[in-house]
Design goal:
Shape: globular
Helix content: 25-40%
Strand order of the largest sheet: 1-8-7-6-5-4-3-2
Number of domains: 1
Largest sheet: 8 strands, parallel
CATH superfamily: Aldolase class I
Radius of gyration: 16 Å
CATH architecture: Alpha-Beta Barrel
Number of strands: 8
Distance between the termini: 16 Å
CATH class: Alpha Beta
Order of helices and strands: EHEHEHEHEHEHEHEHH
Length: 228
């Protein structure tokens, strides 16, 4: 089942709770957090307090915390306590990848690994059975609004083959430059979870949350064409 995960990096932070409520009411499935530390990536965004605040606000949808943070282990328990559902991290950000996966699981969350566009997939040979999510970056991490990098579709096909061959219950997510114009092609490469920030939240700029309905409906309409 396809899942749409708006990235709150593109939301209006002055009214974040309302923004998240609106995109979920419009049909989104997962709330995606882009957590940046101005160290592993050249930007500084949000931390676990924002996650906790959304839970206290009443958000019950899954929260997908993508940690672009190095070192990563220190912050994992904080996001787990704050209410994250999935916690994904980059293998380069951990000295001991298997231990970090275990820490996420022990903290009560679903672990995932994130691969930048040029990061090889070899570590999946040893870790895929322990993962609930593989996230492929289709832009270089650090900033929203970038253009989709096409060769990541080849990586998606490879990961999907690995998941199917092993019979694993693992979602395959993509993040960066996804919108109605390319989501069908991305899904056909084996992706089932789609992070969209600018494509969704920019539609609501100007104070009209009903535009979220329109863009999410457009994404769903394109996904419905897969396999035709």
């Amino acid at each position: 089942m396809y899942k749409i995960a708006p990235s709150i990096l593109s939301a209006n932070f002055a009214k974040l709770g309302e923004e998240v409520d609106n995109v979920l009411a419009a049909g989104a499935d997962i709330v995606h957090f882009d957590v940046m530390d101005n160290h592993y990536v050249p930007n500084l965004t949000i931390g676990p307090l924002v996650c906790e605040a959304l839970r206290k606000h009443g958000v019950t949808a899954p929260i997908d915390a993508h940690l672009m943070v190095k070192p990563v282990d220190r912050i994992i328990p904080d996001f787990a306590k704050a209410g994250a559902t999935y916690i994904t991290f980059h293998p380069e950000a951990s000295e001991h990848i298997d231990r970090t996966i275990g820490l996420i699981r022990e903290s009560g969350c679903k672990p995932g690994l994130v691969f930048n566009p040029a990061t090889p997939l070899e570590v999946l040979e040893y870790t895929l059975p322990k993962l609930d999510m593989v996230l492929l970056m289709s832009v270089n991490p650090g900033f929203g609004g970038q253009k989709f990098i096409p060769f990541v579709l080849d990586k998606a096909r490879k990961v999907r083959k690995m998941i199917v061959a092993g019979g694993y219950n693992c979602r395959l997510e993509i993040d960066g430059g996804v919108g109605p114009a390319n989501i069908k092609e991305v899904a056909e490469a084996g992706v089932d979870t789609f992070v969209a920030g600018s494509a969704i939240f920019n539609a609501g700029k100007g104070g009209d949350p009903h535009r979220y309905d329109t863009v999410i409906a457009a994404l769903r309409a394109e996904l419905a064409k897969v396999g035709r």
